[in-house]
Amino acid sequence: MNEEQKDPETEKPGYITANPKSYGFIKQMRDHLKDNPTEAEKVLWKYLRRKQTGYKVRRQHIIDDFITDFVCLSKKLVIEIDGKIHLQQKEYDRLRTARLNELGYQVIRFTNEEVLAKPDRIKAKIKEYLDEIEDN
User: From 2.10.25.10, 3.40.960.10, 3.50.50.60, 3.30.200.20, which CATH number describes the 18-132 domain?
Assistant: First the structure.
């Protein structure tokens, strides 16, 4: 888990971040989320994709037993976009963030409303975080 390895077909480094015991089940959930993004995720992905921040960002990436909204693996930064459901699951989010922190990830959170109301401000904040973190 969390080991860097070479993909033999492409010779590019790859990342193993998922728990192999739960990967099959979580991958199905991840595929569904990837095919059905929220409006806020769509807005933010337009900015984060194709290294527009200067960094590779993945969406709906599995880390351990969790599906992150966005992650920059080289910076170990997880970006979460929280909808109203997160108001009812604060303890779960706290435990999830603690586990991701244990694995070496920083987690930043924004609400759907923040992303939709001021996407440029959110984009700038994410870029600031990415620029400030040293490469792993």
Answer: 3.40.960.10
